[in-house]
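Sample 3 of the quickstart, ligand guanosine-5'-diphosphate-alpha-D-mannose:
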Amino acid sequence: MKSQNSPNPELSLIVPTYCERQNIATLIERVHQSLSRYSYELIVVDDNSPDGTSELAKSLTQKYPVRVITRRNERGLASAVVDGFKQAKGEIFGVIDADLQHPPEILPELLKEIRNGAGVIIASRYVEGGGSEGWSVKRKIVSKGSKLLAQLLLPSIRGIKDPLSGFFLLRRKVIDGVALSPTGYKILLEVLVRGKPSEVAEVPYVLRERERGESNLNAGEGINYLKHLYRLAGSGGTIRFIKFCLVGLSGVLVNEGLLWMLTEGLGLYYVLSAAIAIETAILTNFILNDIWTFRDRRSPGIQSVLRRALKFNLVSIAGLGINMAILLTFTEVLGISYLISNLIGIAGATLWNFTINASWTWRAKPRGEPALEG
Ligand code: GDD
Ligand code: MN
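Result:
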């Protein structure tokens, strides 16, 4: 069978597919042209696409060094790639989309770069010479916003220009023994944060427009993305996060109640009432988080409490800004209902507030070191 498969290829290229019947044959052919001088295997990981992608790919395994994994009980780009990694034989792994948006012609250049010693080579839209063809303003904003949020929450990827690329190579050793469990689309983020490669380099490419078939990206992926970021940021644990959300909810009640009382009871102008209500809610939130959510991380002393209160205030105000920015973008640019946009805004801001407070306001004390402040 698979006459072309070499037993120990240098590169294992993973191609996740869902309904790519119209693209997969062209992709395989173009990869083969581009890698004719290299030893490689191409692993298609298909989630049992109803359009027959698996069957078509299987019919090409005689002619090309291709293997096909058909998953019947699972869906998802990133988890498909992880399953591909598990079957890969090469010392270098690669990931490329099937829809021809990622040009296979730059694979030799990526290989050359990784042979120079880097752990991960990213085909990047955001280094000089790179770009995205025919992207609407809408998509550009979502892409940049997603990237910004990731960089705010995950310090280790701040220097990387395109941490959300779907086209990259890595050395097997970067993820050897590392448990990968991404939710959603962004497998590279998982590799970078959990694999902690020592050297990452980026090579420019232009993301082409999809000519055939449809993108599988939808609104649900937005939520998956936030979940993924939350898990990668992992600064406090789930119980703590739930406590933090409950405190936040109590703050909403304080805010609404006070707004009503000050406006109706004292006859204040409602905007003034709102300002007072917001600040009061920030303070009650602070107190509850200080004595409950993060009680194990408090250092004693009035100065230290004040310092935490100030930090918490600053984080909350920035969080408010994030909420507004998401609300405006999703409503004005994406045309999503403002009520839904606001929910997404609240989710984004909560993620920000929790992560930054857990790593700054109530930073975990290094083990064995007593609290010095006071
Ligand atoms: N196995 C499997 N299962 N594959 C999937 C699934 C799934 O549930 N969903 C999508 N794919 C495959 C598609 O068939 C395609 O080969 C690839 O994953 C990318 O899917 P698209 O739907 O075309 O994604 P996109 O174009 O919106 O986004 C891509 O490009 C971005 C920019 O580089 C992705 O690669 C993103 O991760 C990337 O950020
Ligand atoms: Mn695509």
